[in-house]
Amino acid sequence: MKEIIRRRIGLEFGAPPAKAGKQELRRRNTLLLLALLQSDGPSSQAELARRSALSPATVSGILQPLIESRILVEEGKSTAGLGRRASILAFNPRANITAGVSIDLEGVEVALVDLSGRVVDQTSAPYPRYTEPNEVVTLAAQCLATLEARNSLTRDSIAGVGVAIPGLINSSTGLVQVASNLGWMNVQLRDLFEQRFGVPVRVEHLGRAKARAEAIWGKGKHHRNFVCLEIGSGIGAGIVVHGRILRGSGGMGGEVGHMPVDPAGPVCACGCKGCWEVFCSGPAIRRNLAHKLAETANASAELGPLATLAELHAAYLQGDAVANAVVEEWAACFVRGLIGVIWNFDPEFILLTGPVVSQCPSLSEAAKRIIGGLKGNARSFDVPLILESHHAGTGVVAASATVATRYLEELASGGSHRETRLLAAQ
Length: 426
Ligand SMILES: [Zn+2]
Fold this sequence. Notes:
The chain is an alpha/beta fold. It has helices spanning 2-13, 21-40, 45-52, 56-68, 133-150, 189-197, 206-217, 276-280, 282-295, 309-317, 321-345, 355-359, 361-372, 395-412; strands at residues 43-44, 72-77, 87-91, 97-104, 107-114, 119-126, 158-165, 168-170, 175-179, 184-188, 201-205, 226-231, 235-241, 244-245, 349-353, 385-387. The protein binds zinc ion.
């Protein structure tokens, strides 16, 4: 357990506090060079020095230990210039591997993910709704053991495990305060996973995990201010401000689903009344649909009270009046919350993710129409609403992003990062 705690400290806080200016400077320069190699591709040391505006001696001093530990590998020789041809260096995403665990309503997915966000292998296990946390962790452990056996890996060669889960999550402590659709309350999920897995584990809200994955591997790659909204059993956000995920003082920053939008609204799982997600989550949409059908004496030819979001979308496209009312009401309320998000964080764009968006695209289309037509006195609200990346938007990749970035930060801090192990079979 001591070992887990020591490694967890590195995982959680990434860089140690800057004891000296020099050490901090080296950390930042290392992260800059790694970012350049990841975003722009392989490069010579001279070219990296030019692009980073660092001296060739500084670049060489930083890169040498990374080459020795195989984080960087030689990928041919430069053809430019005369004289001795310089080595072209490339970031080696296989230098280490992380595991991503995505917990959903009725199943857990586990994947091995390399440092570039590529899924090396994955598997999953189903379970009935409202399964106990202990049993879900056991199933996840079995999945990871299967993946390790298939890829000739030992547990010690996993740099860390990221767990993504929807709900009210304190990512600093790993506590799941409420995951209403799973039926979980006050579950110390990080401890459960670490006891079973024996490696450092980071539990993160699905929306924040997706924002991180989009920031390093997806549509947020070259942007410093954006919001990733996860709309499913609730609404949560990963908010990227000046290139960093907003976590707040208690690790719960981004729980925008609990913004009050109607003080007379129904009570939310958080205990307050009229939260945004009480009106705009997936279950809320289905409740509204059932209510409207009862009210209009089944005036819908297309829909029954147990209709899915995909069926709602199909009925909307057919011109069904009830479907139209449900979609337009949702969009009007959703935009009310979006305006709050836009005023607060002034994002370059908002990524829409989660089952509500993927299963019923007419909802986000309706929201786009409303927000595109809004004109305020002080600002335009026409912030692009875009859909998540095909790859970075998946739960397992998002889950692993949170540990992959910590691993690189720890590396840049010159901390006791783990020995790198290449995947022999790949
Ligand atoms: Zn609430």
